[in-house]
Design the sequence.
């Protein structure tokens, strides 16, 4: 079964609003990564957060990690129509690059 | 950052034929590469771990005789889908890790008619 579960499965918001996606996982991890995937395209790496980190920022993105709850969240602030995509979390339990993906959240940002 | 390429980006083949997909790390060496498969509107599922100079390690439920993996060099891994069937139609993505992080290829869309 997938290591990660994402919530919500689908999210629809208006441009300018913030979008929050959550990821829960089952076993201890070395790091957790968030990716974006536009329909029919490859993955775009967004942020990597290590198990000893609690929060990271990159532009309009903010990722938190709570290892005690085995969960992570991705916040996109001031969303744009171009943010419309599927977002996946992926956990690496071995630090060898073998990632297990969550089910993904489909984000739709309406202009 | 590092780049991982895949070739071809898309391929259409007839049922019963075999298709080879290449995954290359362009500016770093990767002793280990990973192959994923993604069906429409689903997540990525790890198929196998490709190890340079040794046999690949397959995930449970993935047929090693159907999905042949060859990691002949530190920059190239190939996935061959043998005797392809329409249910093998999918998006195949490889990844490789350098010293710092994992990089994904752009994916190969396989359509079996």
Sequence:
């Amino acid at each position: 079964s997938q290591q990660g579960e994402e919530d919500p499965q689908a999210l629809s918001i208006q441009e300018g609003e913030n979008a929050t996606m959550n990821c829960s996982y089952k076993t201890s991890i070395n790091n957790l990564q968030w990716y974006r995937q536009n329909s029919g395209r490859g993955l775009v790496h967004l942020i990597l957060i290590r198990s000893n980190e609690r929060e990271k920022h990159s532009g309009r993105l903010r990722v938190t990690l709570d290892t005690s709850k085995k969960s992570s969240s991705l916040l996109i602030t001031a969303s744009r129509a171009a943010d419309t995509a599927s977002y996946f979390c992926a956990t690496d339990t071995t630090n060898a690059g073998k990632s297990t993906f969550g089910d993904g959240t489909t984000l739709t940002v309406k202009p | 950052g590092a780049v991982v390429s895949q070739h071809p980006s898309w391929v259409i083949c007839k049922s019963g034929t075999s298709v080879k997909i290449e995954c290359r790390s362009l500016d770093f060496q990767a002793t280990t590469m990973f192959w994923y498969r993604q069906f429409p509107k689903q997540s990525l599922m790890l198929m196998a771990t490709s190890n340079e100079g040794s046999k690949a390690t397959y995930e449970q439920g993935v047929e090693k005789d159907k999905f042949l993996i060859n990691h002949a060099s530190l920059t190239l891994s190939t996935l061959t889908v043998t005797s392809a069937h329409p249910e093998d139609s999918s998006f195949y993505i490889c990844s490789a890790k350098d010293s710092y992080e994992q990089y994904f290829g752009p994916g190969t869309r396989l359509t079996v008619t």
